[in-house]
Amino acid sequence: MNNSTQTFKSRYDAIVIGAGHNGLTNAAYLAKGGLDVLVVEKNDYIGGAAVSRELHEGWVYSNCSYVCSLLRQSIHRDLELTRHGLMIVPYSGTTNFSRTGDYIAEYSDHAMQYREIRRHSLRDADASVRYETDLMRYAKLIRHFLLRTPADPTSFKPRDMSEMMFMAKKFAGMGEEQVYEFIRFMTMSAGDFLDEYFENDLVKAMFSTSSIIGTALGVYSPGTAYVLLHHVMGDVDGAVGAWGLARGGMGAISNAIAGALREHGGTIRTSAPVQQIIVRNGRATGVALEGGEEICADIVVSNLDPKRTFTVIMDRNDIPADLRSKAENFKIRGSSGKVNIALTGAPDFPSLPGGHPLRHGSFQFLDSMERMERAYDDWKHGRWSDDPFVEMTQSSMWDPTLAAPGHYFVSCFIQYCPAEVAGGWTPEKRDAFGKTVIDQICNYSPNFRDLIAHMEVRTPHEIENEIGLTEGNIFQGELTIDQLMFNRPFPGYSQYRGPVKGMYMCGSGTHPGGGVSAACGANSAREILRDLKRPNVVPEDDVDE
Amino acid sequence: MPLQATLQPAYAIDHVHMGILPSPFHSRTSRLNLNQQWNEWNGFASAAYYSDAHIEYFSTRNTCGVFDVSPMRKYRFRGADAAAMLDRMVTRDVIAQAVDTVAYNVWCTDAGALVDDGTIFRLAEEEFMLCCADPCYDWFCLSAVGFDAVDITEISEEVAALALQGPTSCALLKAMGFTGIEDCKPFQIMRFAFASGEIMISRTGYTGDLGYELWLPPQDAKQLWDALFDKGALYGIQPLGDESLEMARLEAGFLAPDVDFHGSLHTVQRGHDHSPLELGLGWILNFKKAHFSGRAALLAQKESGNYRRLLKLDIEGNKPAEHSILYADKKCATEIGYITSAMWSPVVKANIAYGLVDAKFFKGPIWAEIYHQKELRWQRKVARCTRVTKAFWSPERARATPPPDC
Amino acid sequence: MNKSPDIIIIGGGHNGLVCAAYLAKAGRQVLVLEANTQAGGLGATREFAPGFRASVAHTLPQLGKRLVKDLELERHGFGLAAQALPTVAMCTSGKHITVSGNELGGASASDTAAYPAYLQLMQKFAKAIKPFWHKRPPLLGSGGLRDAATLGQFGWKLRALGKQDMRELMRMIALPAQDLMDEYFESPLLKAALSWDANVGSKLAPRSPNNAVIALLYRMSGDLTGGLPLAKGGCGGLMDALAAAARAHGAELRLGSPVARVIVEQGQATGVQLGSGEIISAPTIVSNADPRTSFFKLLGARHLDVQFTHRINRLRMDGQVAKLHLALESLPNFTGLAHPDGRLLLAPDMAYIENAFDAAKYGGYARQLPMEVLLPSLRDDSLAPRDQHVLSALVQYAPYTVKGGWDAHRDSFLENALASLERYAPGIRECVIAAELLTPADLEQQFGVTGGHWHHGEFALDNWWMNRPTYGASRYHTPVSGFYLCGAGAHPGGGIMGAAGSNAARALLEEN
Description:
heterotrimer, A: alpha/beta, globular
């Protein structure tokens, strides 16, 4: 990954800022399309938030993103990512502990899943079939739009009109009543949505967790039903809603895409933080690195989030005033934390019998949506919750490359953790946040603390500082309707083109949003190649097959 | 404030059973299931076949066979509003249904799409049992909204059940001491003292032949099985697995859920569910009774005549048309539908099938594109299909009371 | 009434009266059956203490000229006590900001500069959407030419905003009030005041997305005076005029006549049975009751399909606003206000509102309760004895399902409300002769509104237009032939504007 053996030119056809997975995907497709591409990355490693890092000797951490489902299969196939070292392994089994000591679990076996929900509520076990069908219907609809550029509904251009027609056709294909249901679904809260199916608090809690992951809203905030959908619209090998792990950690995804990029002749330059995108005579002409070096290119693509792109690395005078204020108003709120832990043994969960298959899965500690909502209230008041929502994924149980046999890497995702606390984040406060998380886990796994060999605590503050996501927002911007589809990142800028000629966006702040899909980068590359009147090399999605 | 959780030891928690569950007859069925060939049905083990499906099948047409229907889902509806609530949910008249009778029913969405089918047993003026193949409690709860005086309970685990089907079934029951069973008319219920309590016998079944279904508390299950096989030896009794039952039901003209139709509530793709009219169940739509769910949509569909038809087909040759696509022409240029179930009928000696055919084409010629294997090598064949209006197998004895030889 | 009626309207709330008046005007024989002894529903002006009168609904932001003109309401006694009541955002310190028309008084320079642009944009949006409040919601696929025309007109109205503003509307429509306010203004007090109408009456708060802008635009739909009007005699003054107009056109109003059920024969509504047992036949029955009451209590689930009843059953109908009426022996003194005239909003910032909401989410209520306070007797001497006053306040948030039940909490909620009020009007308690607190449970019990919800179900994007109250009943007719809706549960929603009633009347006349 280091630059030592490489020399770099001062001019390329295109420069992509940020070697996160979308930046790499974008660059790979530009290179495949025949451009001479340079990716510049501020860190001395690539991958952005899809990384594998050996932060403690003998343990590999997926220290930001940790699971994978949205990664477009057609990109995986088209860029031959398997040949470049990527394997996505499905995993299953989430146990959600209640404070009474019991739990509810998700099994992949249908009959066992039914019985498990039935243990808590007969009605809910039955209703889960209706729930999953309805959710699947919406997922199947939305999947059509991931690897497509959003239409501009205000435009009468043939391309926008035909894209609108495509959308209308897909909607019509659901049937009229389902369109009404979908409109309702898209605008309602996950809590209200779940209340319409389920009666049992634990069941609702289990289904609700993905509605607020990475989101600065509560389960009862309208709009969170979509966030729920955002987490089930991916797939592993066509199993829509399933999640997998990248073997070798999430960095395997970035590394494989980087491999494809290099094979197509692209260049990656790390430890090269961009100071500014250079605009001359109303068009982008290159980038200036911190330290003053300038690199020229006719195409400059920013994989940074929209706020950072337009308020930090672009000069106020180079962009329209209204765009600057749009970027300032862009909602990119830090609401999540991470605690990554190296363990010297398997944690014991006394509620689960030894050898139980659930011991290999993920753990959550939530017995009602009310607890989740209260954690959100804490966030609103600018503090991390004493009773945080923790999703603990035992990645190394499924991936032998992350730790030595008998050693374990677990990734804990925490909702909610504010980007700013009173008096600012300090190492002491960060550690106190980490302790809260460990305390929560130890409620259910008393020996957990004793097994910790090393842990990395990341509040939004660390996430922002290390990988440059403003406020540490994992999606590069909230997934609310005002920032989705043709509104993402801003109305009028949803087709990946920036405010000046030659400047583009390719990060998760663009459609279809965060979640390691590689779709933003690919969509953006398609638009760039189109502007250059070069043949498209970005594949169609294979959702319909 | 941090929450303190109470830890419970694993043994104190009622974890779900891992893997497949035994039915109340499992100790008996597993002994007979020579190769341990099981399917999963609602989480329970259901024998795929016991020793030879072909021979087991013939017992339903020649002697008698026993099928374990315990995994079927059973629900009890009780209360002053039970009849009205069910009547509004299903397509036939529940208010008018006599006590101690059974009626096959379907229940539909507002759009008239089939949610599921099942049988309703009227056990008393204000008490019903409803049996269906798949869980349906959620729909029953939705259907009970607005009806205060109805109490719905799942009783699947409280009732063990066997289907005893075939020409000697009545004689066998009589020989077991269930005197008077010969007077039980089709879709009637009789009750007898048995073992620790009572056994309920209904003249119902899924084979189209003379047959009964036996309902009793699970603690008496083994005793019933043993009594059947003890006396049944003289009546040619055989255990039936899923494969033989599947053959019998197809000949009899019965539908299988998730084979011939896809329940609307778990259908994602538009139009992949079915209306009862499409499935040939127009005869159980009672438009004269009080309102029922889906009525308006079904009436409109009926009047339009514009709907797919599930046809009974007799197909030339002897290669079963499983998974075949149907065409309007021998050249296979115009696709018009697909086969849902197909088999060689051993008793009729015909190549039979159900095919779902588009509205425009169900009256015209139908051709099936059949793929079959000869020593691994796949062969293609396009076979002419002939529509059949009656059930492929429908013996008089299934309707006679008392049945012959009884 | 000699002849048997053509149309029976169940409920003499304002939408029922509007519907009746329009139908009677069109020559139909209309009978309105009202359970209470007074017509007007939540708009009726009632005496809550000897000599003191108030109505639950207290202002008329949504009322339009057309209704007043069509029904000649002025001839029937309708008049205004105030043309344009200013809104005053209050701080306990006495600092306050006055919002009247497109002017701000007492705001910072930057807010004062930002306000006209904000207001202009919102007014532009409100104007674009306005026609659709007064139209039947269209069908998306199965409709006819008229539906296609409505949709086309909707698209055109959006497009006619201009590319920039159309884009802005499609973004803003989903914004929470808080984000919207933060984008335009700096003063916490002003933001609280301008965001108030976005959430009042809903189970939502400033941070809740997908509701604020549509609610604000809805509140801006009235055009009676260009400001916030106050009816003479309270809202009941308007109710009486509506009743008089309906009667003048030949409609009959029977008060104290609760309907027990709607009679359905062969899938057709044929009449109603009163609580007294009396049966009245009519080929058309229109319900001004909320959807849940209409479909479950009046009609009965047995006449409806399963999924339809589920869709009605899932409507969120828990009211969140309590109404407080105080009889005051003298004019209270509000800190910093020379004269407490106007709509006084007692919420120093949006967090204050959000905190009150947070308490209500879990079935409780806050100690400090945000309020909208009016002293209508300042403008209307018919409401209180001479030199005495009526205080009419909306108090948020008062969850319908308070933990422990309202009987156990009424006193302490009233205490919190008075204490919250006293922080702005020290010594007000000494002026109080009598107090009436109407919790959502009381509103349900006294006015027959499920959950005490003044919109007859949440007013939010997911329960709006074609989804109000649900598809299959969004066009005023219902799955049961001859049975119609005309209440706030139907499009466009609650608030005294009569659009649901007049839209229903028009739909009915179109169909028959």
